[in-house]
């Protein structure tokens, strides 16, 4: 005879769970399976093992369960034929000849058999009270509660109904589980072994203490505790762990750093410019006419202040008459007072043109990543301040094709393999393009503007070599890279979405 200890160690964790539920009073394997979130067959196989060891009693019963046939279900609704004839007959009775429907006619025999009516001179005469019979009760019960054990129903009436084809039955196995004294004792033992929460219900140590490590008692995967030997519970690496939220660099900042890195890798140097610029550098130097709509108050943040502007005679000449480069200029009068008005820069091109004016000799290869300001209504894709990445290259013999090549390389480094160029328009470049990248699920997305500076821009500053220039909205790119639907999230301190951005992603 195996000892309790032996039985205990023969039990699997599943067996122990099942034993616990049975000891708690659950008898139905289906209910136990539901409670433990496992399959009923698993409970039954555990139960069979437990029963074999004598830890539980297992009562396998087969019982008949009954249900309505289709016809029975109909009668449950409209009444048995004999009941319906009674209703037609009323107190005064009805001639048999008037009961024509064959489905009703079968009721006549039952009327007589149940003593509900007599048939005299071809007429059905009700015999007074006809209280609901057991058969009718069963029809009602089965239609209400569905399949029902025969033990709960009147057997005579059931037999009749079965004979009439109104109910049918089938054999159903049902198991009832009950703990035995031996089972109770083994279960108690398993609970005792749950020492101070350090072991689970049977024979595992869940936690190795510093003492155990020091003394080395855990080596080999076993620990002795109060005279018993416990297995060290193996790690379950599949258990869900608590999420941790380490500090990390803001993903937008990371994206900006990555862009900076790419530009440096491509041999550009970073330049910085002022947030507040004169209209001169923001517009005029870029050959943007003084009546250009982008200069309007509704697009640009103007300050009340006026700036010093450099010697501007050549810029004035260019705007008015086209200077010496064969241009016609914009005509009209160029007003230096308009050029002195200060603005929050609307694009970083103001920074690069100023830099070029200061460095008119080749080669120049510079970039700037900085904030710009436009009077935009705030919505999911527009904010009045946002970042732009701006690049310029000036050198002898550069061509439009070089520009496209540089852009292609930059976008490829940012992770956009498919790039195309659509013709664009900017007052300061010719030709001008709008680069677009292909995004799975979005299609072609415009990602900035680019072009070769016009002579009207470069000549007044003594820049005599081609300038390739491009600007790019960084927020747009961040949305795509970070999968955001709302640009405003980039500027909110709400940590919700930030927590879900992978820490190590290089973006
Ligand atoms: N400044 C333009 C972009 C651009 C830069 C340089 C050349 C051409 C276009 C913009 O803000 O959209």
From TrEMBL:
Aminoacyl-transfer RNA synthetases class-II family profile domain ranges (all copies): 252-502
Cofactor binding, per record: Binds 2 magnesium ions per tetramer.
GO biological process: phenylalanyl-tRNA aminoacylation
Gene expressing this chain: pheS
Catalytic reaction(s) noted: tRNA(Phe) + L-phenylalanine + ATP = L-phenylalanyl-tRNA(Phe) + AMP + diphosphate + H(+)
Requisite cofactors: Mg(2+)
Protein name: Phenylalanine--tRNA ligase alpha subunit
Family note: Belongs to the class-II aminoacyl-tRNA synthetase family. Phe-tRNA synthetase alpha subunit type 2 subfamily.
